[in-house]
Amino acid sequence: MEISATQLIFYLLSFMIIVSSIYVVTLKNIFHSAIFLILALFSVAGIYVLLGAEFVAASQVLIYVGAVSVLMIFAIMLTSRLASKKIEQSNEQVPTAIFVCAGFLLISLGSFSNTVWRMSKEMLPEKNIFTIGKLLMTDYVLPFEVVSIVLLAALIGAIVLSRKAGA
Asked: Which of 53, 81, 109 is the last residue of a domain?
């Protein structure tokens, strides 16, 4: 059985997602956890590129890596006063969590092995991103603009709330 370059890249990205996700939930330093979360999200974007979904990969990088992760790192850095205090980190639910995770893993592996994975014979459009952009600016321009107004209102609301809290 010969492994192609695409399969090798897929396995490498999958390995990176699994390892970095384990580090996200097991590290005691929250800043390091955020860095490994960024690595996991970049790896997911790489899998989207392998699937031919460049727009989704770009959205993944822009929204999750570029916005959410940076926001989390800023929040961690702004609350650095908490990091200087000694906070005892303990959890009594570790055995229960391991049991639940192992059960979920077994159920997932069982369902994956019994699933028939059908491949679509339909090809993606030649210019995938161009097609999505054209649809966003023609047929779906109203929902696109409504979402941008809602996001702008949320941003203004966050600014107003943070000014009142800081004042």
From this structure: 81
87: confidence class by pLDDT, cuts 50, 70, 90: low
Confidence check: pLDDT of 49 > 80: yes
Whether 23 contacts 32, CB under 8 Å: yes
**CA 149/CA 117 separation, integer angstroms:** 40
Token pair for 153: 């209102």
- Residue 165, domain extent: 125-167
* Cα–Cα distance measured from residue 34 to residue 57, given in angstroms and rounded to the nearest whole number: 20
Query: Of all residues in the chain, what percent carry a pLDDT higher than 70?
Result: 87
Strands (E), the chain: none
How far out from the chain centre does Cα 20 lie?
Answer: 12
pTM for this predicted structure: 0.65
Rounded to the nearest 10°, the torsion over CA 76, 78, 79, 84 is 90
**15-19: long-range contacts (C-beta < 8 A, 24 or more apart)?**
16/40, 16/43, 17/43, 17/44, 17/47
The residue assigned the tokens 């929040």 is 75
Q: Report the C-alpha gap between 35 and 70 in whole angstroms.
A: 10
Instruction: Please check whether residues 135 and 73 belong to one and the same domain.
Output: no
